[in-house]
Amino acid sequence: MTKLxxxxxxxxxxxxxxxxxxxxxxxxxxxxxxxxxxxxxxxxFAFVEMSxxxxxxxxxxxxGKDFQGRDLRINEAMDKPKRSSGGGGGRW
Length: 92
Description:
Layout: E1 2-7, H1 15-23, E2 28-35, E3 42-50, H2 52-62, E4 66-67, E5 70-71, E6 73-76
Antiparallel strand pairs: 1-3, 1-6, 2-3, 4-5
């Protein structure tokens, strides 16, 4: 599976909107619209998981495409750097 970053989403877009958009290209394994922790409103980006071939098609067909009045930014998601759980800094 390949995880895609989908940026520049309109605030009104829902997870179902994102899933529907990508399912027109291939099978969507998961779609996750990122919400603000406090307000529960969209932060304007999502992550979509698809097979490698479908992900490549989605990038080429949807990157820069107008979606509900905004030009989408789509690329392969980068892994989040791992945080050290050690503490360091002289803690005992």
